[in-house]
Amino acid sequence: MSAAGTHRPVSVLFVCLGNICRSPMAEGVFRRMTKADTRVGVIDSAGTGAYHEGCAPDPRTMTVLANNGETGYHHTARKVRSSDFRDFDYILAMDGENLHDLTRSQRRIVKNSGADAAPAELMLFGDFGGRKGEEVIDPYYGARDGFMIAYEQMTRFTWGFIEEVLSGIDITQEA
Asked: pTM for this one?
């Protein structure tokens, strides 16, 4: 689904493996950077696995967000749901493995439902950063600098999304 010509706010779901490091950071950055943008609707994040379902984001994620001005962000980890493929315009994966898992799930949903397609557009979030195929390395097992690198990527990718997708949307037009 292309956002160009869309007359309603765009919804975005960010996805990583466990939904406690990269995807909630992406959600937090995206929320802050698009806070007053009426072209953006629902923003959420989820994981391809249920390893941390019900948990808060990693404290290092929250510290990096807070240190960069995002102090009001709250999130509870969840796993990607079948309905996400219908409810979101864009589902943005943090790495190729996440994208592969999402693509496989979307195909299964389409096959089982008999629908022609699940409307969500699946992409790497890094495709909006200026280097197609750029991935966000999972910082979970590393030091704090990995979270800082991820934050810098999220900021760059969000600017890219704003320029590539949101710039073509005018929600004041009538359908």
From this structure: 0.91
